[in-house]
Amino acid sequence: MNTNTDHKHRNDRGQENHRNESSWNRDTHGAQTVPPPPLKSHKMNSSAQSGFNPPPQGTRTVFADDPMIVDKLAHKRERERSPQRNSREASSSRSHREEERQDRHRRSAEPATKRMKREDTPSIPGDFIPLFNDDSADEIDGLSSLSADRVPSPELVTSSSTLETEASKAKNERGPSALFDLGRSGIRALGNFISGGASGDATENDSSREQDALEAASLAQSELGHVAEQLRAAKEENQKLEEQASLLRADLRLSQEQVQRLAKKRTDNQIERSKLMEQATKDEKYIKQMEEELAKSRHEKTKHLERMQNLIQEKGVLHTQLKQLRNSCDTRPPKTVSRVSESSLNPFDNKLDQVSEAALKSGVESLNDSLETFTMKVIDDAELVALDNANARLSSVAPKEYDASNKLLAALNEHSHGEEKRGFLLDALLHQALIKELDHLFCSGDVLSHVLDENRLFVHALKELTKREPWTVAQRWRSLAASVDPLPTKWQNDSILECADSVVTLLAWAYHQPLETFQPMLTQIQSQLNKIYTEARQLSLSVRRDMLSVRMKVLVPASEGDDFLPFSSECMDAAWSDMKVVEGDAVVSPYKFGLQRTDDTGRSSLLIKPKAVTTALLRWLSCN
User: Fold this and answer.
1) Number of domains in the chain
2) Is residue 253 in some structural domain?
3) Pairing between strand 573-574 and 611-614?
4) I need a surface site. Which of 73, 299, 406, 598 has the fewest CB within 10 A?
5) Which one of 200, 234, 268 terminates a domain?
6) DSSP code of 441?
7) Which domain holds residue 98?
8) 283 phi/psi in degrees, rounded to 5
9) pTM of the model
């Protein structure tokens, strides 16, 4: 009884589904209605309430309001508006019905076993259009153009484990480009399966088969939509990956170019470093060579200084011998003619010379040579002493101990660090100090020196005698007055000590050394100065006392008061003529003594021109 009731219920439901399917097929050919929704079972309601869960295998349900079906119908209606397509579909439907009737007759004639096997597959009777024809293929092709943003309702989405398995296998084997082929092939196979399994008998299984076919078609379409959406996402992902790959390739190309530039720069740096290392090696070798040459030069300089010292001593010995020879020649009695008629007993009527002009000239030159020897020796000894005491503290000697108006001292203060310039300035300063002191003590004045005749009384007396008395009387009076030589020895010794101290102080200031550095030279300087003082004193006496025929005088460059007259080549010579001395240059210091001769007529001449240091030396120091 229950079996009959269930069978009747299934028949009623199948008839109702058949009517709905027929109405739905008519609507697809131009109608504006959609099939009503099928009845929902208790299982479907319970699954919808708890959330979307795919129904179990064999309980598939197709809803009339499925967005996939609605979009498909709309798309199909747009494609089938032309009358040619309608006529083609009508003819296809008639041929399909004819084939369906023939198939039912053939199945009725087959054995029962074959028919039972064939009836296991669902079929859709009536006006169902198979999906493997050309129109269905066009519909499937149109699904690829549907909007990928449309997401089906969770209640309407169904899945088939079989189709999903086949789709995943096809995707793994063929890739995203074959997904549409997979859906198309599945739908065609389903259509063939449904059309091939249609039975001519109107049994109670027709409705369930129709429902299964619709569920399979809806499932295939849903799967196809999912596949299309996945394909779109895959294309977008692929495009993004291609863009990233393009950016990465560009970055890689830039990185490779940067690596090439860095490699080239590294190579250039290595080459430059090699060149610098080679240059540094050459420089080190050159520095070593220079150091060796410097050591050799210092050794040679020491030898040369020793040789110079020996030559200076030898020169001094030769000068002494020369003086002795000159003195021996001068002391010989002159050849005279004894005539009684020319002799006179009057002591003032005597004009016989005790020395010759040549002897006096030689004496002046000898005194100048002695001064030159003294200054050279002092400077050379000071160089050696300063070199031995190069690490001593700086001298505290202040320039105020010297005459602030002395131009040579100012120049020495400026150029004291240069050996050559310092040598010239020390030479000029030593000559200046000695010549001024010797002239003041011995050579100044016509009768007596200025240190003895401060008021110049003897000078005025000689002038008056020369005017009033004969030349011989005036010369004889001059000789008698000079022979007294009243200069005390103590004055000479005091002057020597003072001059020696001044020399040591000057050296300490010039070499920036303490006074104690040059104190060992003091005794030797005093000894040499004593000889020079004695020689100058004897020369001054001989010039005034032993020369009666003419009036001889040892002189220095002319001066007016404390200042010397400008340089004139007629009355003086320059100390260093190669320094471009100009007429009218200011004289800053005397350098050598001169000898003047005056006859009885009052005419004067210079047997030896005095030498002077001019501002040409200062110009040379500034230019060099």
Assistant:
1) 2
2) no
3) parallel
4) 299
5) 234
6) I
7) 2-40+56-234
8) -65, -40
9) 0.47
